[in-house]
Task: structure prediction
Amino acid sequence: MLKTRGQRIFNWFNIVIVFIIMLTCLLPFIHVLAKALSSNTYILAKEVYFWPKGFTFFSFNYVLSNPQFMRSMLVSVYITVAGTLLSMIITILTAFVFTRKDLPFQGFIVGLFIFTMFFGGGMIPTYLLYSNMGLLDTYAVLILPGAVGVFNIILMRNFFESISPSLEESAIIDGASNIRVLFAIYVPLSKAAIATITLFFAVGKWNAYFNAVMYTTSPAKMPVQLYLRNILLSLDTLLESDPQQLEYVATEGVRAATVVAAMLPILMVYPFAQRYFIHGMMIGAIKE
Result:
């Protein structure tokens, strides 16, 4: 099919816009990576842009040799895995319940869930609630508050509703229970949606640090994002306490290496979900 001149111009215009957006996302990461791999001299001279100069791993060695960083990394992995698993169980079960036509007060219950997307109890009441429940300075306070994602529940429900009801009817005729219908029909047919929402939850859990700032005090429960925040704020003082390190690493290089090291684990997850991600972004968004 031949395209008109206007269509070709429009396509090239879209390509240029997407390319510019891609550069705005990619160049900052390349700049940070170049700093993390550059020597102290070039970083202090502000000569590092998008390619390492004086290639060295001293900054990464400094970051990875810190026992608190490795401890924080393990804490974040635990919070991400446990929190994502819990959130997905709640999301799948709740979305399936919301598809039941015989659910009493279905509209009212769904409305209560949606209400929480727009209104919250406030920071101080939330803190007092967690304190009274004994959740402060525990792993539970880093996992439970974000366990229910209403937006993701709505996405999953919309996808469940797009599955042909005849499959469920056939299973019920054969004597299948609701649990059997869910795990034998809905879950296998929802791999793309599950992979996409799992990635949403995992990225959110990995990047979260506000709950750790507000509700934890123990370094043993410090996630890597809170560790990264502390490093960005207090690295100059840490390096001044060890003058020998100043000969090999610059504060900007260590900050950059910490950022890269904190990003890599979650970036490694994406290739495994990529085959489902694009399809999963579209499903549930359009109802026939």
